[in-house]
Amino acid sequence: MLPSAMIFDVDGTLSETEELHRQAFNEIFAAEKLPWHWDAADYRRLLDVAGGKERIAHFLAAQPEGADRAVGRIAELHAAKTARYSALIAAGAALRPGVERLIREAKAAGVRLAIATTTSLPNVEALLGASLGREAIALFEVIGAGDVVPAKKPAPDIYQYVLERLALPASACVAFEDSTNGVRAARGAGLATIVTQGMYTEGDDFAGALAVLSDLGEPDAPYRHLAGAGAGDRLVTLDALGRWLEAA
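Structure (tokenized):
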């Protein structure tokens, strides 16, 4: 049973982009002479808050210094950070192992593609353009991104938004995620969920995921099976997905 559609998260799932996001935030803080720098440990904690504007607001709420100069500028700071991130991505972006292979396989087989992410649409466009080419956005029939729904992950709203526009039931689709919040959002919408854990989500709670893997796998570098379905396979292929879904 092949899925009718595959729905992808973006940051950490399509590509290991979170370090570029962290760099962009820090460069904007420095440019604005704000007294903050997010190290990797800080950023991992902040990733529990979905959405860049929401992440800044959450951070500011705990700051004893400088917050008064920034609290009314969250949208402005986030827009500047998005522009900086787009410039960093344009300099080069690699998709995670197996992502392009599986996307191409899906398109050839008539499996529909969609995106469900809390990141902004310009960030999605920048990543796809840098990694797959200028026309890559057209590969995805529906893109749910940014503020199209008021409640961000772990709320299921973004997945429900995408499913409504695909006009497909959750049972006919599969989601790809990398984080606890992502799994909760996808499972809350009723979607079978494949996790490819990333550098900032290793060790997260992926309860309810159909499979937890290191990545989607390439012929010369198979994925590492971590939990759930997929122990007998070397790559995530459409045929493998079909078998996993049938057995679930």
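The CA atoms of residues 42 and 71 lie 19 Å apart. The beta strands are 5-8, 112-116, 142-144, 173-177, 192-196, 211-213, 225-228.
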